[in-house]
Amino acid sequence: MSTGTTGTTVTDTGSEATGAGAPVPAPEPDVVAEPSVRAKRLKGIGIGLGRTLLAVLGTIVVFAIVIAIKGASPTDTYRALFDSIFHNSNAATDIALRATPLVLAGLAVAVPARAGLVNVGGEGQLLIGGVAGAGVALAVGDALPGGVTLALILVAGALGGALWAALSVVLRLFAGISESVTTLLLNYVALDLMLFLVFDPWKDPNASGQPTSRPLPTSQQLPVLGSGRIHLGVILTVVVLVIVAFVLKRTSWGFSLRVVGGNAEAARRAGLRVGPLLISAMFVGGALAGLAGAIQLAGVEYKLRPLFLFGFGYVGFLASWLGRHQPWRVAAAAVLLSALVIGGDSLQIDSGLPAATVNVLMAILLLAVFGFTGRKARA
After folding, report:
1. If we measure between CA atoms, which residue out of 46, 50, 81, 45 comes closest to residue 63?
2. Is 341:84 a contact under the CB 8 Å cutoff?
3. How far apart are CA 283 and CA 263, in angstroms?
4. Which residues of 99-117 are buried (b: 16+ CB within 10 A; e: fewer)?
5. pLDDT at position 21, please?
6. CB-based burial of residue 143 (10 Å sphere; 0-12 exposed, 13-18 middle, 19+ buried)?
7. Which of 168, 368, 373, 375 has the smallest set of CB atoms within 10 Å of its CB?
8. Is position 81 within any domain?
9. Can you point out the beta strands (E) in the chain?
10. How far apart are the C-alpha atoms of 177 and 265, rounded to whole Å?
11. Contacts of 247 (CB under 8 A, 6+ apart)
């Protein structure tokens, strides 16, 4: 419809178009549909699962070659390994008990790793946690109720491990010594300290065989769930895992650790207090390892001995790297490694392979996972 006004035209929709010389709006470009975020996420998950599957298959093939070189049958060996894990009525309990300190030892590496720290000292922090817990038990004796003493044992273990770990960061900040070196060397100091206590002042005069400390009384031991061997420390470890995963992902402290780990200098210029963050990260990591030592003391072994938690710290380090320092993945890696160790007994009994063969299997698994899943980062 047109009005009588010269030079102006009103369309039926009510819009006006000016006369000569009026700008004409440019046509809108065609919008290209982009893949949805969900599709990208599913693609990433698929690629990750594919790489992990390749890593596992590569591990199976390479380890089969090692078995064949040793003169054993790969098929029979894998069958015995499978049966010892899945057809043994005690395997689930054994795996859970072994995985409990390994999960915490792995988290003790994962938390500092978020801030760019390398904690190789889980072995020593585990030992110090056990030593601190045993020291509290010996000092308190029967003066307090058993439940109170048990709580003090766990707290002392966590605090002992935390202080032992934080020492390495203090040396890094004020002396410029790498924490990867100091945490590793402190492992041997912790071992010597425990051996001194076990062989001399804390030695149980009634012990037969190898020297041990005096055992914890029943009232100071972690309660057992039901009629089996699973103790309360297993549940406590799951709770700690949930808390650590939440704190690292959902809190400002966890975000600050990621920033510091990504670029410490940029974090400093952004106003973050890098030094305290590094100390707190290692402090928490050491506390987790120390708690693991105290849980092992109060829930499984009940006393210190020369081989107390031997090698657990290094396997926890391996679990953390297998899980890429992600709490839930670290826990899954710890359970997997525990299952391999429990099933590894069959390698020696049924296949006549050396006891250290399971360590070769774990090493091959680590190299395979890094080899296949690391390609994405290098691309």
Report:
1. 81
2. no
3. 20
4. bbbbbbbbbbbbbbbbbbb
5. 53
6. exposed
7. 375
8. no
9. 9-10, 16-17
10. 18
11. 253, 254
Q: Token pair 């390479």 is at which residue?
A: 62
Please indicate, yes or no, if residue 286 is contained in any of the structural domains. yes
Structure tokens at 266: 């940029």
pTM of the predicted structure, to 2 decimals: 0.84
Per-block mean pLDDT, blocks of 10 residues, the chain (379 long) = 45 46 56 64 77 82 90 87 86 94 97 96 97 96 94 98 96 94 96 96 89 94 91 97 97 95 92 95 97 97 95 93 92 93 79 81 83 54
What single-letter amino acid sits at 262? G
357-373 helix and 327-343 helix, angle to the nearest 10 degrees: 150
- 166 inside domain: yes
Number of domains in the chain: 1
The CATH number linked to 330 is 1.10.3470
In whole angstroms, give the CA distance from residue 337 to residue 331. Answer: 10
To the nearest 10 degrees (0 to 180), the angle between helices 252-262 and 232-250 is 70
CA 183 to chain centre: 17
Residue at 59 is within a domain:
no
Question: How many Cβ atoms are within 10 Å of 256's Cβ, its own excluded?
Answer: 21
Q: Work out whether the CA dihedral 220, 224, 228, 230 comes out positive or negative.
A: negative
SS3 for 140? helix
Q: Residue 134 is part of which domain span?
A: 90-355
